[in-house]
Design goal:
heterodimer; A: 255 residues; mainly alpha; MetI-like fold; 0% strand; B: 268 residues; alpha/beta; Rossmann fold; 2 domains; 6-stranded mixed sheet; 3-stranded antiparallel sheet; 7 helices; 9 strands; 37% helix; 23% strand
């Protein structure tokens, strides 16, 4: 990426951000908005720098979200392979996967504490929220294999394993990465919801800061949570770009 | 046993189809009683309107589809080794593999050793004149080059029978002409049986020794015709009176086949 493209891509989204920060700072300092409702951006920045517990909380949340996300990737893709293997299995089980997705995580988080214990609630919550998009997108990808190529594999009597690993899974990769991008953000949300219950990580810090009327610290936590989601999204995008750089038209065009 | 009049008696057959019928779900009849014999080493073109069931016929020969009624004998499919090559309407390469790895795929699926795969893929890539593009990826190739890679993939396992399903239909006129000539040369050099499905009269007349013309769906054979043209084919052939006459014969049969079924359709 050359300097010109960096300017074109990075500068425009920064403009509204800077404006917002300046306006918020002026509004709070001039007393138009009371600082216990909206903190001055400068005080948010100050607590970001001063409160070292926020950073260790972020690390905790990141670890839990990543473990939950990793489990979603492995188990979600495995389930999609299973569901794609037979129409009967898909008809029998896929409706439950859809139903599972509609269960509000905030409502089952307390149940998770009972089932998996305090130590694992956050990871379990991240996992439960993020697995569905992995299953759904991987399944779509696995079912959209080029029929002519399937014929080719039949013609040369390819085994099930060869058809899966040399044709169906690589073919599904663009869909799988779409699922991963969604799942990454959801894993962070799931982890924070779990932390509302366990009082650890960013989620716990936000709850405690609110109880202490530290709106600046609440905002600092929110910013860190967003950053976490963005970083995860970016990493998944970069990995996807590397894996598919040679072949997928949408990846080629975006280069 | 009465053989098709245009295949001499006692000729070894590569393909022998008798009374093939195929009806798809929803009672769409694709093929309605087709007898077809193809001699070993012959180049046969199957000509018919789009969607008439000729692709289905080819898929049945390849063992990718089945007939509801009728007997199918494909000698090339006998024995343990894979002896059928198949070229689809588009190249259908694996986009994440280089040209050479795409060409080697059939041998990989058949469980051949790395050395054998490598050697055969090098041979096939040369056969279609793609040596210079061997390490490139499908997205970096022109349509004609992709199709040539696809042809090399069909030839890499040294098939006895090569089936092509409107293979060059999506290409521009020049690339198509080049590939037609390349295919014809390969057929003469490699001693393979070729069945070539097309909806182009020129292509059928230019390439084949024998043309089978099919009617509209449900497909029946309306003409089984040995082309009276020299074995040596080049661009000048297309401007000859003989070529024009053969094209006329095929055209009339094709048009007749459309009419027969439209009458059948309007007056059941």
């Amino acid at each position: 990426m050359n300097a010109r493209r960096i300017l074109q891509n990075i500068v425009p989204p920064l403009v509204p951000l800077v404006l917002l920060v300046v306006v918020a700072e002026i509004a709070v300092r001039a007393g138009w908005v009371r600082s216990f409702l909206v903190p001055a951006p400068s005080s948010v920045l100050a607590s970001l720098l001063a409160e070292s517990d926020l950073w260790s909380a972020t690390l905790d949340t990141a670890t839990s979200a990543l473990i939950g996300f990793g489990m979603s990737v492995v188990i979600g893709i495995a389930m999609a392979i299973l569901l794609s293997s037979s129409n009967w299995i898909r008809r029998a089980f896929y409706p439950y996967a859809v139903f599972f997705q509609t269960v509000p995580i905030i409502a089952i988080a307390p149940l998770l504490v009972i089932w998996v214990g305090w130590d694992h609630t956050v990871v379990a919550s991240a996992f439960i929220v993020s697995i569905f998009p992995v299953i759904a997108n991987a399944l779509t990808g696995l079912l959209s294999t080029d029929p002519a190529l399937k014929d080719l594999f039949v013609l040369y009597r390819a085994s099930h394993a060869a058809t899966l690993f040399k044709l169906k899974l690589p073919f599904a990769l663009p869909h799988i990465f779409t699922g991963l991008r969604i799942a990454g953000g959801l894993a962070v949300i799931g982890a924070i919801v779990g932390e509302f219950i366990t009082s650890g990580g960013i989620g716990g810090s936000v709850i405690i800061s609110r109880q202490q009327n530290r709106v600046d610290k609440v905002f600092a936590g929110l910013i860190l949570a967003s950053l976490l989601g963005i970083v995860l999204f970016a990493v998944i995008n970069i990995v996807g770009g590397l894996v598919m750089r040679r072949w997928h038209p949408s990846e080629r065009e975006s280069q | 046993m009465q053989l098709d009049s245009t295949v001499a008696p006692n000729t070894p057959l590569a393909v022998n189809l008798r009374g093939i019928r195929r009806t798809f779900a929803g009672a769409v009849q694709a093929i309605d009683g087709v007898d077809l014999q193809v001699a070993d080493g012959e180049f046969v073109a199957i000509l018919g309107p789009s969607g008439c069931g000729k692709s289905t016929l080819l898929r049945i020969i390849a063992g990718l589809d089945y007939a509801d009624v009728g007997s199918i004998e494909v000698l090339a499919a006998r024995g343990g080794d894979q002896r059928i090559g198949y070229v689809f309407q588009d190249a259908h390469l694996l986009p994440w593999r280089s040209v050479l790895d795409n060409i080697a795929l059939p041998l990989e699926l058949l469980g051949k050793s790395r050395d054998e795969r490598e050697a055969a893929a090098r041979w096939a890539v040369k056969l279609v004149g793609l040596e210079d593009a061997a390490t490139r990826y499908p997205a970096e190739l022109s349509g004609g080059m992709r199709m040539r890679a696809s042809l090399a993939r069909a030839l890499v396992a040294k098939p006895k029978l090569l089936l092509l399903d409107e293979p060059f239909a999506a290409l521009d006129e020049i690339s198509r002409q080049q590939l037609d000539e390349q295919l014809y040369r390969l057929w003469r050099e490699q001693q393979i049986t070729v069945i070539f499905v097309t909806h182009s009269i020129i292509e059928a007349a230019y390439l084949a020794q024998r043309a089978i013309v099919m009617s509209r769906r449900p497909a029946r054979i309306v003409l089984n015709h040995r082309l009276d043209l020299p074995l040596q084919r080049d661009a000048t052939l297309r401007t000859t009176v003989e070529f024009a006459r053969e094209m006329q014969t095929l055209y009339e049969a094709l048009e007749g086949g459309q009419r027969i079924n439209s009458q059948r359709g309007s007056n059941p």
